[in-house]
C-alpha cells in the first residue's frame, strides 16, 4: 500500500495536536512521543507534527519561517461545502487563522486556514460535474 507522510515543524507539539484534532485528524499514539505526533487523516495520509529539534534531525537545511514565508500549500478535499465550512469553523475556534476569503471557482469552493506556525491548508469541495473543459 502506498502512503503519504507530511512532516511539519511546529513550535508547540501539544497545541498543534489539539489544533489538528479539531480539524478532524486523529492521533496515532504508536508513532507519537513528546517531540512529535502522528496525526491520521485517512488510511494512507498521515501528518507528522514535529518539534523543531526533532524535525532538524531529518534535514541539514534551516527550517523556514512559515509565518512570513510560504513553503507549501497543503490541500484537503472534503465531501461537501458544509463539511468544508464545518472544518474551517472548528479550526478557527481552535486558534487557526483565515488569511483569505472564500474563493468560488464555480466547480470548486475553497477556504484557507493557517495553523499557529503559519502552515497553510486549502480546504476545498470540488463538484466535478460542474467542471467546464
User: What count of domains describes the coordinates?
Assistant: 1
Percent in helix: 10-25%
The Cα radius of gyration reads 15 Å
CATH homology superfamily: 2,3-Dihydroxybiphenyl 1,2-Dioxygenase, domain 1
- N- to C-terminal distance: 33 Å
Structural shape: globular
Give the helix/strand class.
Answer: alpha/beta
Task: Map the helices and strands.
Elements: E1 4-10, H1 13-23, E2 26-33, E3 36-40, E4 45-51, H2 52-56, E5 73-77, H3 81-93, E6 103-104, E7 108-114, E8 120-126
Parallel strand pairs: 1-4, 5-8
Antiparallel strand pairs: 2-3, 3-4, 6-7, 7-8
Question: How would you describe this structure to a colleague?
Answer:
It is a single chain. Helix content is 22%, strand content 36%. By secondary structure, it is of the alpha/beta class. It has one domain: 2,3-Dihydroxybiphenyl 1,2-Dioxygenase, domain 1 (Roll), CATH 3.10.180. The strands form two sheets. Strands 1-4-3-2 form a four-stranded mixed β-sheet. A four-stranded mixed β-sheet has the order 5-8-7-6, covered by helices on one side. Helix 1 packs antiparallel against helix 3.
Main attributes of the structure:
8 strands, 4-stranded mixed β-sheet, 133 residues, 2,3-Dihydroxybiphenyl 1,2-Dioxygenase, domain 1, alpha/beta
In brief:
The protein is α/β, with parallel strands linked by helices. It has three helices and eight strands; from the N terminus they run βαβββαβαβββ.
